[in-house]
């Protein structure tokens, strides 16, 4: 049995690069400003994402959304992100490959020592540029949370934080809840 070849626009490096990373077997990878990075979170890292997800369940049910770490494309750039957690409407996920940040309701990134500045600086700017309405940065190294809202081309215009772990983080509507960060 022969594999069917996949085609893409040879003259379009962005498409070729994004196609290639989606077909790396056994690994989750993302592209950050043209650099391919393997996504391998630690258990501590995963624990925080899981704690956030569990607190979001009542809102997810009410809003008809799911929370996961699916792919996010940033068209027109060499960026393809795998967020730690993104909240998206269920209807957008049926048969979908990657979504774009403005299709999310909330994106959560949890820092790692190896790439904390990527989450703090690069992704924060790019998520705003691509219209993600809410960006929650859980900074494990600084032991703080920062909630960014009101995205624009130059970044988020409303910032709450950094708030030390243990301080509740108020997620605005459509969530209308406070995240307990005491066990982060």
Task: Briefly say what this structure is.
By secondary structure, the protein is α+β, with helices and mostly antiparallel strands. It is built from four helices and twelve strands, in the order αββαββββαβαβββββ.
Going by CATH, the homologous superfamily would be: tt1808, chain A
- Rg, rounded, reads 17 Å
Helical coverage, percent range: 25-40%
- Name the helix and strand elements from N-terminus to C-terminus, one letter apiece: HEEHEEEEHEHEEEEE
Shape verdict: globular
Question: In terms of structural class, how would the helical and strand content be classed?
Answer: alpha+beta
Strand arrangement within the widest β-sheet reads 3-6-7-8-9-10
What's the total count of β strands? Answer: 12
CATH domain class: Alpha Beta
Sequence stretches where pLDDT stays below 50 over 5 or more residues: 1-9
Q: How large a portion of the residues is in β-strands, by DSSP E?
A: 25-35%
Note the main attributes of this structure.
6-stranded mixed beta sheet; 4 helices; disordered N terminus
């Amino acid at each position: 049995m022969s594999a069917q070849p996949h085609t893409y626009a040879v003259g379009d490096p962005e498409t070729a690069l994004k196609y290639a990373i989606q077909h790396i077997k056994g690994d989750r990878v993302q592209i950050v400003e043209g650099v391919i990075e393997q996504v391998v979170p630690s258990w501590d890292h995963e624990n925080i994402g899981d704690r956030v997800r569990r607190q979001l369940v009542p809102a997810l049910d009410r809003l008809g959304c799911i929370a996961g770490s699916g792919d996010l494309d940033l068209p027109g750039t060499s960026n393809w992100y795998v967020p730690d957690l993104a909240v998206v409407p269920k209807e957008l996920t049926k048969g979908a490959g990657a979504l774009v940040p403005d299709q999310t309701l909330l994106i959560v990134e949890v820092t790692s020592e190896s790439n904390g500045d990527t989450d703090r600086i690069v992704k924060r700017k790019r998520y705003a540029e691509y219209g993600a309405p809410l960006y929650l940065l859980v900074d494990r190294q600084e032991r703080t949370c920062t909630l960014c809202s009101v995205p624009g081309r130059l970044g988020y215009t409303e910032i709450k934080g950094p708030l030390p772990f243990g301080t509740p983080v108020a997620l605005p509507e459509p969530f209308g809840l406070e995240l307990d960060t005491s066990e982060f």
